[in-house]
Amino acid sequence: MIAEGVSSLQKIAVIGRGTAGSLAAASVSKLHPNPDHTLHHIYDSKIPVIGVGEGGWPTLVTQLHELTGLPYDTIQKRLRGTRKYGIQYEGWGCLNQDFTHYFSPQQLRYSYHLSADFVTEILQQATRAEHIDLKVQSVSKMDDKAVIEFIDGSSETYDLVLDARGFPKELDLEEHILIDYIPTNTAIIRRCPPIVKEEGDQPYIHPTYTRAVARPHGWVFVIPLVAHTSYGYIFNRDVSDISDVESDFDQLLDSDQVKEFEQRAVIPFPNFVHRHMYEGPIARVGNAGAFMEPLEATAIVSAQLQIGLVLHMRFNRDNKFLFTDAPMVNKFLINTMMGYGLFVGWHYSCGSKYTTDFWRHAREKVWPRHRNLARPNVTGSGAFKKFDQMFDLLKQPVLTKEDWEKKCGVPVSSYAQTSQGLGCYPPSP
Ligand SMILES: Cc1cc2nc3c(=O)[nH]c(=O)nc-3n(C[C@H](O)[C@H](O)[C@H](O)COP(=O)(O)OP(=O)(O)OC[C@H]3O[C@@H](n4cnc5c(N)ncnc54)[C@H](O)[C@@H]3O)c2cc1C
User: Fold this and answer.
1) Is 164 in the pocket of ligand 1 (CB under 6 A)?
2) How far apart are CA 66 and CA 63, in angstroms?
3) Which class is 6-334 in CATH?
4) How far is residue 367's CA from residue 349's CA, in Å, rounded to a whole number?
5) How far apart are CA 367 and CA 73, in angstroms?
6) What is the pLDDT of residues 155-192, one digit of tens each?
7) What are phi and psi of 153, to 5 degrees?
8) What does the pLDDT read at residue 374?
9) Does the Cβ of 160 fall within 6 Å of ligand 1?
């Protein structure tokens, strides 16, 4: 039986060929119940993809397998990947202890550390689409359709446009909810030699973790792939001088005995959630829909959720429900992304082993703002209430199985691990 929404979803466009756009195009190709649909995959090859995003959440493992049809080992090898079981925090919180945030169930579920270049490659090979290399000028709604205007003056009308054009050029309070209780806004990326090696033809199966190392100007991620090790220093360019950050980065590499590196990029980033991720004929996905600093690697998993939910609704719901469903779906997406934002910002609430300008700024000025900035009347989101509920749950003497399932962005088990690790236990937001 053909699903209810399919007849009104014959012509689809995906804009963007980064991780989010590639995931969206492969998802349409694989999941569309009608093989005769039209899919235009549109991108401007002169606008580069961001090219970072090397840590995922466990659902990525099964999703890549389902979309590509490739065996798990083949996917991991093609991604030059390793198995990520969680994040190891070094120097965070007030207990002067290191701790790990494991995926749940602990030491059983894993995601990939993956090469951003190769994940788009395997997804593109799983996509059946007409490719259009042309700059998009604008995307707008016209009744239940979306119209794309191209730079050459031409235009095309679609039943659904998945817009994955990356970060917005600038933030606009009408369009974006700012996550101003996250204290960082810039990354320096360095690529270093690999510290893990495949043996023969087999993928590297030993557990690996993303390291999140607190540093005087912020923190550094260390992601082990078999092709290289990625280091990224995340800091605030309004608080720290970039030359001081570079010099502290050198010191960390020195202490890790890394002898050489390739300087890859300096990337400014916004922390925000789009107020209209889903509007019916238009969905904004990936970095176009929401972004927050990469501490908990929430971007690819956000794109998975945005794309999965939008396609599920559009395939399965009759078109007459399009504009009544859209606000509910949009609200659910906003709540989830805001939940990620609160979880990430909260990591700074107990400071770190450093008492530098950055950590004072993060702990004393930026995080306390969340009480005002995340209020439902500012954001239209119920995430703040759910965030408080996570801490209420952790104060209970016993949790029921039902409680274990509760989430604010991430499950209550993630809040428990992090609050014990940071040293804010009994927990408080
Ligand atoms: C420092 C850092 C570390 C990160 N680490 C992680 C991590 O560990 N895990 C994680 O999940 N995420 C991470 N991310 C997020 C990561 O960026 C995203 O997961 C991912 O790359 C999604 O990018 P995107 O596809 O949305 O956009 P992009 O990669 O920016 O792609 C945009 C695409 O749109 C096209 N385009 C843009 N404008 C136009 C136009 N006008 N017309 C036509 N085409 C256009 C471009 O050509 C390009 O193909 C990190 C981000 C940063 C900054």
Assistant:
1) yes
2) 5
3) alpha beta
4) 6
5) 41
6) 999 999 999 999 999 999 999 999 999 999 999 999 99
7) 95, -10
8) 64
9) no
